[in-house]
Amino acid sequence: MLAVAGLLLQETLHNPLAGPELLGVSAGAALVVVAIVILKLPAPFGMLPWLALWGGLIGGALTLLVTRIAQDSLRVILAGAAVTAFLNALVVTLISLGTQSEVGALFQYLLGSLANRSWPAVQLLWPWALGGLALALTLGRTLDVLQLGDELAAGLGVSVSLIRMVLLITSAGLVAAVVAVGGQIGWVALLAPHIARRLVGYCPAWQRLVLTACAGALLLSLADLAARLALAPVETPVGIWTTLVGGPVLLGLVLGRRQ
User: Fold this and answer.
1) Is-contact 87 31, C-beta < 8 A?
2) What percent of the chain has pLDDT over 70?
3) How would residue 254 be classed by pLDDT, with cut points 50, 70 and 90?
4) Region 110-118: what's the mean pLDDT?
5) Cα separations (Å) of 253 from 5, 8, 45, 49, 130?
6) Is there a domain that residue 259 lies in?
């Protein structure tokens, strides 16, 4: 889900550096979940992805407002980083109001953790996974047309603004559901599409989506194994391991674009 969301963001925004952790989507979703826990708001478990979706959409929308002003990719990422930092500051402020047990649990959550997640979490996620992935595959051909540029896509009969909005909401929904269950697991969404592109180069969108999903699943599984075994019997947050890989890769991508 994270990997496909990253691919949709990168190709819809024509920005290879786009990712939910860099555009405020993950932070916005996490802010809603933390607010529900700390403020003890009445929210059924099954509603968490829907509520997190609104937070993710607001966080992403704040960044996209800047996108309309600054089209340069690096400036958009800087704007997303600023929005993410602001939202995370609100998250930390809320956590400081919690009890000691809540602070400990939310600390793991913010780093991204799969510890103690069992079948109820899977049951919550699979409708979002099937719905989001099915919609992404359905719009695969349109996603290919968008790669030709907005003007040419519009000339071929694609409603660019509407399709872009649908794809961005789909991406936010996939991310929000994962954040509601596993916290801010960073960098999978950014890395997996690049891994898939390096392996196969250009291919139809449905193939890119499938390969990216597989790459993301493998990447997160390997990170989870490291989280479980590296300091056993202590299980570290899986988000630490994805960040250890993702941070240097992002730096390489940024430096590569500047050359």
Assistant:
1) yes
2) 94
3) low
4) 87
5) 19, 18, 38, 31, 31
6) no
Q: What is the largest CA-CA distance in the chain?
A: 59
Residue 257 belongs to a domain? no
Q: Decide if pLDDT at 109 tops 70.
A: yes
How many structural domains are present in the chain? Answer: 1
29 contacts 177 by C-beta, under 8 angstroms? no
Distance CA 184, CA 181 (A): 9
d(CA 56, CA 105): 21
Indicate whether 69 pLDDT > 80. no
Instruction: Note down the domain range covering 196.
Output: 2-252
CA distance 51 to 42: 12
28: CATH: 1.10.3470.10
CA distance 197 to 203: 9
Q: Is residue 47 part of a domain?
A: yes
SS3 state of residue 212: helix
- CA 56 vs CA 26, 67, 138, 227: distances in Å: 6, 16, 23, 26
Check if the beta carbon of residue 23 is closer than 8 Å to that of residue 60: yes
Question: For 189-201, what is the mean pLDDT?
Answer: 88
Two structure tokens written together for 63: 């960044």
Rg, the chain, Cα only:
18
Residue 33 lies in a domain: yes
Asked whether residue 259 carries a pLDDT value surpassing 80, the answer given is: no
As given in the structure block, the two tokens for residue 234 are 């202590």
| Residues whose CB is less than 8 angstroms from the CB of residue 86 and which lie 6 or more positions away in sequence, other chains included | none
| Amino acid, res. 182 | G
Pair of tokens at residue 69: 């002003």
DSSP structure string for 103-154: HHHHHHHHH---TT--HHHHHHHHHHHHHHHHHHHHTHHHHHHHTT-HHHHH
Q: pLDDT digits over 28-51, tens only?
A: 999 999 999 999 998 888 899 999
